[in-house]
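Q: Structure tokens for this one, please.
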Amino acid sequence: MLGGLFAFLLYRNETKLVDLGRGLKSLLAILRTLVIAGIAFLLLGPFFKYVERQVQKPIVLIAQDNSSSITMAPDSGFYKNEYLTELNSLSLKLEEEYEIQRYTFDSDLDNSFEIDYSGKQSDISKAINDMMDRNVNRNVGAVILASDGIFNRGVSPSFLASDKGVPIYTVALGDTTIRRDLLIENIARNRLAYLGNDFPVEIQIRADRLKGKNAVLRIRKDGEVLFKRTIEIDDASFVRTIPALLNAKNIGRQRYDVSLSPLAGELTEANNFSSFYIDILDSRQKVLMVYKSPHPDIAAIRNSIESNENYEVVMRSTSDFSGDLSQFDLLITHGLPDASGSAGNLLERARDKNLPIWAIGGVAISWKDAQQAGFGIEARLKGGSNTTDASPSLVRNFSLFSLSEEVSTAITNWAPIKTSFAEFFSEPSARILFEQRIGVVDTDQPLWIFSEVEGYKSSLTLGEGIWRWRIQNFAERGDFSAFDELVSRTVQYLATKEDRRQFRVYGKDKFDEDQNVILEAELYNKSYQAVNDPEVEVRFTDKNGNAYDFVFSRTQTAYYLDAGKFPPGQYAYTAKVSFEGRDLLATGNVTVEAILIESVRTTADHQLLFKIAESSGASMFYPNQLEELTDVLLSKEEIVPIMYSTEQMTDLIESRWLLFLFVAFLAIEWFIRKYKGAY
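A: Here is the predicted structure, written as tokens:
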């Protein structure tokens, strides 16, 4: 109506169009009516609704095992040639009906589908999980898993196949025949040893179908034979663990090579050789425990510390301590300082030598002397020598070190210890690990406190009887792990010297050969503020003198280097940065260990593949049945497209075609009026 009224008023008395025919004049009025009416209508905010439909083809996921165990079968040439041709043919035929996604896997899933059987480890369960995660909420109709069934990482895939809701068709590769083979199955040893000490090594060997043969086991270091033993194989399925005792003669990370003499007819000789590394340390960190009188706490702490072979504990009473602190990394006292002054100036001398202290304050402790010793706490006794029982309550925002959930849970049930009946005041710089719980009431009174003043670290446990915590830990859990972790974290924090170097490089010192070598670096100015303006270079050198140069990338305030994968071996590195007119250097070593696990198990596990297929509602096929597998998938009625409907709403005022239409109407009207002289 509005549009018609506007057009009527415009053209009713238009004298310039008197010569215009009635029909043409009516056309102009209609055009103006449509434009005005359309604009008025759009101002009401109309919209239109429509349904968009999309059809998604079923997805078939193909996962090909790319681990090296596939080609350890006698017919390895088949898997490198004919089999790959047949697999590609299967993929092309299925593409006519389905969307195909192809992956390879070893320890990780890769969508490049480049098959070279070079994978060092196999994780079938991770491959299945990752494929399904990448296609969550999509129309996955089936999975084709081509593998020999050998996995040496992750959980058994037979447990998860039934949970995926998708049939997993398996293609059984490899050879299930037990072949004649001699191999090193496992090497058990400690990671650390100390210079001059003997350390044990256990070599587990296996021999299949070699009964009556003899093999020679050797352990070498730098070509020198350190251990040799002849092994008589007296069973067709022979397994034996051979113990050896070696001596730690050199400091640092040392490599030892293990070999079994090859025997005629073996499937492969690659698994006759292995190596292991031992970190040889010059000496343990030494902890001095000084006590006024024997107490169960002392034995509990000593046993806990000595469970970590990095530490050596020396016990002394105040009466037989010589006073020499120079050879120790940490001082632990029990019941000291006391009012009798039996420890003399022990705490003062420790502070002068920057020797960290952990004081366990028995009920006879002199709180006045403790305050002067700089533990960051003041005590105001309420009842002379009276005591109270207090249980530990973990302070959640304690940040000097972290405790596992196991420790946090165990602490809630630990028995109370005896502490002085006093009101304690901690300095602002102090950090409280435990507060006192009296009965069932949590208080803000400290029970275990840490302090650091001008780089000097100390800790004070405000009570005695913590031996009960260790006993209770064992009674509840069958081990001392929670208590030992608490003591270990305390000792480690106190005994660790602060790193004040301007330039430092850090990272793992051991990588597997399928891992990228990664380092990080930090640079500080004289105010100890992190900077990363200058360029940081690093050179890796192998044992043959070959050098590999890299440049660190910058992060927000530091540096990062991903040097990629290195061949197995030992590498020394030197990082260099020019800063404030000086060249700063940081050195270190990394070891890249060979992964030989794929050569340990060489017999295919088709039973596992059958279980995966059966539990998921599918079937197992062999490489010569790929055409049959193709026919089965193409005939499956359950694998169908899915139609998705999406309801869409669009405001008409946002429609461009309406704008163009209105402009066109106005342009036509203007042209006719102009042509007829109405303007």
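A few notes: The chain is about 25% helix and 35% strand. The chain has a mean pLDDT of 87.
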